[in-house]
Amino acid sequence: MASSPDDLKARLHGLLSEFQAKIERAHTEQELRKVFADYGGSQGAIRVAQKDALKEAPNAEKKAIGQLSNAVVAEVERALEGRLAALHEAERRRDLERTVDVSLPGRVRRLGHLHPTTLVRREIEQIFAQLGFTVAEGPQIETDFHNFEALAMPKDHPARDMQDTFYIEGEPELVLRTHTSPVQIRTMLSGPPPIRIIAPGPVYRKDDDPTHSPMFNQVEGLCVDEGITFADLKGVLLHFAKRFFGEEWGVRLRPSFFPFTEPSAEIDFTCAFCAGSGCRTCKGSGWIEIGGAGMVDPEVFAHVGYDPERYTGFAFGWGLDRMAMLRYHIDDIKLFFDGDVRFARQFK
Ligand code: FA5
I need a surface site. Which of 270, 299, 300, 338 has the fewest CB within 10 A? Predict the structure, then answer.
């Protein structure tokens, strides 16, 4: 029986050693907790020893006895935590060994890569960057003003029917942009000439067949400065066709109409399916229509505050997905939007 702090110290030391020996032999959490209760619990041997010591000790020693016992209980708790952690780690390892065969050879993960539309878009951006064009962007939900009005298509203009439009419910002044031409307006409103931009991005129309999709991508081009002529437009398009498809490629411009360009033209490129010799896709002509172009109409300059006496400019807009179809000989535009990785995987 302990009668002084020194006696108690010796007794507690003995209990601690016993405790440590027992938890080393315990192999389950249940066994461990039982050993702990026997020694460190409120009815455990350490508290019993403390009570015994307190009974006989003079008042002056009671505090030291309490502190001594608490310190030993804390040590017992630390030892318990350490053993529990070791036990859990051993269990985790046993589980892993049961479920993971570390001797199996590793599996090579397939690397993702860019979508064909993105590949073509980047290539187009690069070719135009070398001609001094920068990339501009605009919102896909566009105002009636930017999409139509400022492009010389007031509300009752018949040309609006050329682009069957998705309107935003309850917002008569907002549309899903039907073309990338509103980026022309936004760019011109943001600063004076000279301007050389291309604007690639998604557009939306109520269109649906193998060569028309309700969501597709266009690339807009705009160049405004003093002395820009139709010859510059043709030169830029021809340069692009040769860089993108090949030296032997040609461009044909056919008279057409767009409300925001005057004169206007349809752009044809040499058919990529037959290299110009005539096939089913180009209906024997050797040419494929890719988009529209023309000289910026002075009425558009009036909307953005440019002086039409001083500045002239050309603009063009073509189907980006159509360009990818030509590049990769794909005859159904839907393949670009189905999200089938077996399709996308073929383009590196
Ligand atoms: C336009 O959208 C004019 N903004 C182009 C333009 C820009 C003219 C600047 C003059 C100056 P158009 O509606 O023809 O024009 O469309 C241009 C091209 O987009 C088409 O030639 C075609 O390649 C592509 N395109 C049109 N509708 C679809 C569709 N539903 N799915 C896929 N591609 C389409």
Answer: 338
Tell me which of 179, 203, 297 to substitute to probe ligand 1's pocket, judged by most ligand atoms within 8 Å of the beta carbon.
Answer: 179
Asked whether 291 lines ligand 1 (CB < 6 A), one says yes
**Of the residues 37, 65, 97, the one at which a domain ends:** 97
E strand intervals along 123-272 = 134-135, 141-143, 167-168, 171-176, 195-204, 215-225, 251-258, 261-270
Any atom of ligand 1 within 6 Å of the Cβ of 205: yes
Ligand 1: atom nearest CA of 184 is 9
Tell whether ligand 1 has an atom less than 6 A from the beta carbon of residue 334: no
- pTM exceeds 0.90 for this model: no
- 330 and 243 in a common domain: yes
Judge if 334 and 210 occupy the same domain. Answer: yes
Q: Which domain holds residue 299?
A: 116-344
| 141-189: pLDDT as tens digits | 999 999 999 999 988 887 777 778 999 999 989 999 999 999 999 999 9
Q: How many domains would you assign to the chain?
A: 2
* DSSP track, 316-340: EEEEHHHHHHHHHT---GGGGTS--
pLDDT level of residue 64 (50, 70, 90 thresholds): confident
Residues 122 and 85 in one domain: no
Residue 207 burial by Cβ neighbours in a 10 Å radius (0-12, 13-18, 19+): middle
196 within ligand 1 shell (Cβ under 6 A): no
Residue 111 in domain: no
